[in-house]
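Sample intake sheet
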Amino acid sequence: MKDAEGLKDAPVPDALSPEELISTQQEYVQASINAIKAGFDGVELHGANGYLLEQFLSPFSNVRTDNYGGSIENRARFILETTKKVSEAIGKDKTGIRLSPFGAASDMKPYPEIEQTYEYLASELNKLGILYIHLVDHSGMGAPVVPVIIKEAVRKVFTGTLILSGDYAKDRAELHIEEGRADLIAIGRPFINNPDLVERLKNDWPLSTELDTNTFYTAGEKGYTDYPTYTK
């Protein structure tokens, strides 16, 4: 964890008890309700980047011996239950989820049945009828490349909107949409050093490549908001 004083010690986590499983899911539900009340268009559940939902999915972090651990179906149970409860509370048309197969968060490395895991998860999410899946490829940040076969498997079993992200530039993004690999492409980091990114893409203006990663996730006024817009 970080704040203005730098890194802080974190406690060793405990496995959630049956009662905590339910209360934690309710926290997701209440947070989603609050977001909609605050004027958000929808909610994207974070099942990627090593966060709690992905911790249940990965056999490296999930070592439970109850019906939330072990098999693919059990490890996906917490995500699916949480997604169902959130979608019932705020609407399926307002619920999406972010996933990052082959992400390399902490000790949560790829595992042998990862393809089957995400194909099963996408199929079950499709049955819930949520709005979209946002599939992230972190290979540009040092993680293994997400194989095309996984993206195609998700595309095949999930009939809702599929969003892909991961080091996309305009030409590649347009190509993958035209080829039907995705319905939408998400672009993240370039928005930091290109605050006028949409206008730059529309007008084919060059993108800034100057990005100070030392200011990421830090306190202070430098970074995030002090990058210039494009000038001819």
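Comment: Residues 116 and 154 are 10 Å apart (CA to CA). The longest strand covers residues 43-47.
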